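Work Package 4 report. The design task specified in the project plan requires that, given a folded chain encoded as structure tokens, an amino acid be chosen for each position. We show below one input record used in the internal validation round.
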């Protein structure tokens, strides 16, 4: 199988055109005409995941977060990021990323998160700004719990679901009832007004900073920040999806998820 064949199949599922205008999904490094024998699926492309790809013999890395989100201004190899690019190219590894197009895709990132949280009757949170996106292409999900709980209890549930040692709770009313939940993977602070507009009792998203947290509290919204790394849910989900496609298309390719944890934060 050539990299191009795999990418064309993936872009039927989550076209690059669905990505937000500021995003840089797609081919990051390498050659789409290169043969692919083994795919490593990862949330992040970091030096340790590149080394893992080399160690397991992967010639294609599929990532959620773009490896080259910020353009390189020099190719000084004393810079670890640049050295990582050089290592990828030296080992003839092709790197492809699906970012906000995977976030918005039906059956993609935010559906996986909503399912993990046991949300029912889900609808989109905010429309995609990608070109050609239809009304069904939306970032985030809003759904209902089977049984009401409290803000604090739901925060504890999030810790269990995502395997977290800690998270941040932003709420004046931790004992308040929760039935309707909004979730948006990654950094979703700016979309909290949409959670309010959808009448969510609590909003689950990552990377909430100080001043937006105050604005959320002032608006009467409880927010759970479990971090950005919960998007690693894509690793087993994509591995299963790609394995299904390989069977359907008779691809002679091995697919595996990274075994590494690339979350940069540790709770003490």
């Amino acid at each position: 199988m050539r990299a191009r064949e795999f990418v064309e199949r993936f872009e039927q599922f989550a076209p690059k055109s669905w990505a937000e205008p500021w995003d840089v999904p797609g081919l990051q490094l390498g050659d789409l005409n290169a043969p692919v024998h083994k795919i490593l699926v990862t949330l992040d492309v970091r030096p340790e995941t590149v080394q893992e790809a080399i160690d397991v013999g992967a010639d294609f890395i599929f990532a959620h977060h773009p490896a080259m989100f910020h353009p390189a201004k020099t190719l000084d190899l004393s810079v670890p990021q640049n050295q990582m690019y050089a290592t990828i190219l030296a080992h003839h590894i092709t790197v492809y990323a699906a970012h906000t197009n995977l976030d918005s895709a039906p059956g993609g990132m935010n559906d996986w998160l909503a399912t993990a949280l046991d949300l029912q009757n889900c609808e989109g949170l905010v429309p995609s700004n990608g070109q050609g996106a239809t009304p069904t292409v939306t970032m985030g999900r809003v759904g209902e719990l089977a049984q009401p709980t409290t803000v604090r209890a739901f925060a504890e549930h999030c810790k269990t679901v995502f395997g977290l040692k800690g998270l941040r709770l932003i709420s004046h009313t931790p004992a308040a009832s929760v039935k309707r939940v909004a979730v948006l993977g990654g950094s979703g602070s700016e979309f909290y007004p949409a959670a309010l507009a959808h009448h969510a009792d609590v909003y689950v998203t990552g990377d909430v900073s100080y001043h937006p947290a105050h604005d959320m509290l002032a608006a009467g919204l409880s927010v759970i920040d479990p971090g950005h790394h919960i998007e690693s849910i894509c690793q087993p989900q994509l591995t299963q999806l790609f394995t299904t496609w390989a069977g359907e298309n008779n691809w002679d390719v091995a697919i595996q998820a990274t075994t590494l944890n690339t979350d940069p934060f540790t709770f003490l």
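The chain has a mean pLDDT of 97. Validation will be extended to a larger panel in the next phase.
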